[in-house]
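Office hours follow-up: a student asked to see two folded examples consecutively, so here they are.
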Amino acid sequence: MSTGSDGHAGALAPFRVLELGATIAAPFCGHLLADFGADVIKVEDCNGDPARSNNGAWATTI
């Protein structure tokens, strides 16, 4: 069972999630699920997640 930074189990602690996404939205969703206590298993391409090497190219400024 995973616990948050405060030591308490999150609401999604009983769940295990398999995250297969790449780029922006899916990994962000996996991160949010992990923040709520889910055990997230991230599966990536052999070359890694392409978002790690974008150097901010997908970031937008307002």
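And the second, which I mentioned at the end of office hours:
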Amino acid sequence: MLFHSILFYVFAAIMFGAALGVVFSRNPVHSVMLLVLTFFNAAVLWLMAEAEFLAIVLVLVYVGAVMVLFLFVVMMLDVNVEAAKRGLTRYAPFGIAIALLMVVELMQLIWLRSQVGDTVGGFVPNPEGYSNTKALGSVLYTEHVYAFEIAAVILLLAIIAAITLTMRKRPGLKVQNIAKQVGVRAKDRIRVVKMDAEKKS
């Protein structure tokens, strides 16, 4: 179907342009918003290829994790949060424009799927009862199990490194001393003070 192919290339072009914007944008907030748009367009392309599981994972994991990544960047760069909140209205039009673009793309995709039904032009339709989640899991945990485990270890190291970078010494930071808490004695917990009775005037 010609319209299906046109939409595919339009979404791919938007994703490519948004990815370039992430790299070349000087504003970190704009880069994050463009990265969200890039992930969303990639998820739309997965939906057009009838890989619903990959599309949902891309939106839930990556688009959700982008905000956490941005928080890590703010924590590591010591950005003034109050000043960022005051300047939040500057980024509102840009964010609204990206959100509207995502809504328009999603509406076009829903309309396309409702029109073509099971006969999707450009891609071979899946047989009835086919589960791409089951097919993906069977390939991932058999043929590519070592690569999957290595990727998990690398992600774990990245999480530990991010936590280590953010847990630096700050003035007034209260640290819990587990050894001191466990080794405390009962008589050190309570101190009984004997006071003389006060005389009524």
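Two things to take away from it. The mean pLDDT is 75. Residues 52-77 form the longest helix (26 residues).
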